[in-house]
Design brief:
The complex is a heterodimer. In chain A, 80% of the residues lie in helices and 0% in strands. Chain A is mainly alpha-helical. The longest helix of chain A is centred in the last third of the chain and has 27 residues, at 85-111. By secondary structure, chain B is mainly α. In chain B, helix 5 (122-132) packs across helix 8 (164-189) and helix 7 (153-159) crosses helix 8 (164-189). Chain B is globular. Classes of the chains: A mainly alpha, B mainly alpha. At the A-B interface, helix 1 and helix 2 of A face helix 2, helix 3, helix 5 and helix 8 of B.
Chain lengths: 113, 191
């Protein structure tokens, strides 16, 4: 019973150990450190790039650009994908020109010892 | 000069206004960070990060809340981020030591002695800080702002962007958790 009481007393004292705490003081050269850190960020250039990339205006602009490019591709797609007669003629001619040579090459390779 | 005037001058790019802001609020920011990270060097790093962010994002401060409230928000979130990064590093170092990649022993953090604690309370405060460190983030933030920064529950509620009743509940849970942890500690150490 005494032990339990003693523990309770220790817990209460510990919980109130911060009641009269004083505030800690910062390093008086903090401003110099902050300015050095800001200058270093600017010198490397990455700080500016990072700052630009994290701006909401930049993200919105990129989003609009992506949507715009997709729209252009979507609008133009039906015209460019339709096969014209000229394309068909070219494909047929190309096929007829290349096929005999391919066969010849294959048969040449097979004839090799 | 009021905070509002200083903020307006900083928005116009006046470095002298920034210097005044840093000098006026450095102790407040450092003390808050120190209460959370419980290490003087880490608290200095956090304070530096806080003022760098203030300089870079002053245009995002619209004046909806007090400038000090905005600063407290940045300070607590940076301090908690710092703790998370440190814990991740510790976990990684522990894993490395398990697989033999890092032969060095994983260093355990020593007891933290806050410079503002009186000598007669030093040992007990160190035990309490160790227990505070084990609290969930929101309880730790509320308890630190109230006990170490000496802020009222209403001010803590504004900083944490929550209601007064939520802060009361957080504080109640924090105290009850701390009591349990301390009882366990003294049960083992007073035997």
């Amino acid at each position: 019973m005494d032990k339990k009481k003693h523990i309770e007393q220790q817990v209460d004292e510990t919980l109130s150990s911060l009641d009269s705490i004083k505030k800690a003081k910062a390093n008086p050269f903090l401003f110099t450190r902050v300015m050095a850190s800001l200058r270093q960020e600017e010198e490397t250039g990455w700080g500016r790039v990072g700052h630009l990339l994290t701006r909401p205006a930049f993200a919105i602009a990129v989003l609009f650009l992506v949507i715009l490019m997709n729209s252009i591709v979507f609008i133009q797609q039906p015209e460019s994908s339709s096969i014209t007669d000229e394309d068909q003629v070219f494909a047929t001619e190309y096929n007829s020109l290349t096929q005999p040579d391919d066969e010849g090459l294959l048969s040449y390779n097979e004839d090799q010892p | 000069m009021t905070d509002q005037e200083l903020v307006e001058r900083l928005k116009k790019g006046e470095d002298s206004a920034f210097k005044t802001i840093v000098e006026s609020y450095q102790d407040m920011v450092y003390n808050t960070a120190l209460g959370i990270v419980q290490n003087s060097e880490d608290a200095e790093d956090v304070a530096q990060e806080v003022f760098v962010q203030v300089y870079e994002s002053i245009h995002q401060f619209k004046g909806d809340s007090k400038f000090s409230t905005w600063l407290y928000r940045i300070a607590t979130s940076k301090a908690l981020d710092h703790l998370r990064r440190k814990k991740r590093k510790k976990r990684f170092a522990f894993l490395q030591s398990l697989f033999g990649a890092n032969e060095e022993e994983v260093i355990h953090t020593p007891d933290f002695h806050h410079p503002g604690v009186s000598i007669e309370n030093k040992e007990k405060a160190a035990v309490l800080f160790r227990a505070i460190n084990k609290l969930p983030d929101n309880q730790k933030t509320a308890f630190t702002l109230h006990k170490i920064e000496g802020l009222s529950y209403q001010e803590v509620a504004e900083i944490m962007d929550t209601s007064l009743s939520s802060v009361e509940s957080l504080m109640h849970r924090a105290k009850s958790n701390l009591r349990k942890m301390l009882e366990d500690y003294y049960q083992k150490n007073l035997g």
